Amino acid sequence: MSKYVVKRLLFLIPTILGVTLIIFSIMSITPGDPGRAILGPSVPQADVDEYNHKLGYDLPFIQKYINYIKNMVLFKNFGISYFTKQPVFEEIWPRFLVTIKLAFIGVALSAVIGVPTGIYAAVKQYKPFDTISSLAAFFLAAIPAFVLGMMLLLIFAMKLNWLPSHGINTFKHYIMPAIMISIPPAAQNMRFTKSSMLETIRQDYVRTARAKGASGVLIAGAVVAEKLFSIPGIGSLIVDRITYKDEPIIIAGTILISIVFNLIMLLVDILYAFIDPRIRSKYTRNYIGR
Fold first, then answer.
1. How far is Cα 45 from Cα 41, in angstroms, rounded to an integer?
2. Distance (Å, rounded) from C-alpha 287 to C-alpha 4?
3. Structural domain 2-30+77-289, CATH architecture
4. How much is the pTM?
5. Which end of the chain is more exposed for a tag (fewer CB within 10 A), N or C?
6. Is the CB of residue 55 less than 8 Å from the CB of residue 68?
7. What's the Rg (C-alpha) of the chain?
8. In 3D, which of 186, 169, 167, 172 has the Cα closest to residue 228?
């Protein structure tokens, strides 16, 4: 099992390189440049070109990519933000902690709501509770997160004025974003829990895949919630800096999110392996077979 974990951790290296190459490629073909976006439309082109040259933005694509990878391998930070001139890591790390905190709150809520509801629905199969909860789960699993978030804002912030609409200053600020990102996964957890209890044959790889999928949904939901509720997380930072083509921030933030996502998937595999010896033996056989 330890060999499998090491192998999966080493697999992060080509994953990070691939993510970096994709983001660099996308940023290189999008219109605009940071000099024009930051200095404004009225500044002469010569000044914009000089600004881009100071940033190193006008370097060839391959040279920029190699320089970035070299600095990352040598732990020379993730560069300097084009927009604020601050070290990238100093900007994204506090926001990253906010995103992770919000995502973990969503994980806890989705489990607390979805699993007990699914168990009770299975026990009360064909009863009114089962019917109502199943219909609600189908609806909530299909509704887009941003639509749910806007409904919460309209009802609890604008109409009832019970909860704040933006920021993260108090515990109340986390309530609506946490509900927004946890309800769709909770609906999925409810359906999966109910079906698992009613199934006569339970396949381990299905449960593992479901857990991985839920983690991805929560991270994506956290990014949407940050923008909708004006939460200073890493997702909202990336979206804001796209306007300025702030490549160091965009690339570093995306890399950090991809690393966390891969680590979550690895953690799910490890937890299932410790819980179920059959999965552990499967991983062992797969590794030996290779």
1. 9
2. 7
3. Orthogonal Bundle (1.10)
4. 0.70
5. C
6. no
7. 23
8. 167
> Residue type for 190, please?
M
Environment class of 274 (CB within 10 Å of its CB; exposed 0-12, middle 13-18, buried 19+): exposed
DSSP code string of 189-239:
HHHHHHHHHH-SS--HHHHHHHHHHHHHHHHHHHHHHHHHTT--SHHHHHH
- The pair of structure tokens assigned to 151 is 């409904």
Structure letter (DSSP) for residue 153 = I
Closest by CA position to 61, among listed 24, 86, 90, 10 = 24
Q: How many residues does the chain have?
A: 290
State yes or no: pLDDT of 283 exceeds 70.
no
SS3 80: strand
Average pLDDT rounded to a whole number, residues 28-39: 86
Q: What is the pLDDT of residue 277?
A: 62
Position 134, amino acid: S
Number of neighbouring beta carbons within 10 Å of residue 148:
21
The pLDDT confidence band at residue 268, using thresholds 50, 70 and 90, is: low
Characterise 81 by phi-psi region: left (phi > 0), alpha (psi -120 to 50), beta (else).
beta
Helix, strand, or coil (residue 151): helix
How many Å apart are CA 257 and CA 261, to the nearest integer? Answer: 6
Alpha helices by DSSP H, listed for the chain, are 2-10, 12-29, 34-39, 45-55, 61-73, 88-123, 128-142, 145-152, 171-198, 204-228, 234-242, 247-275, 277-289
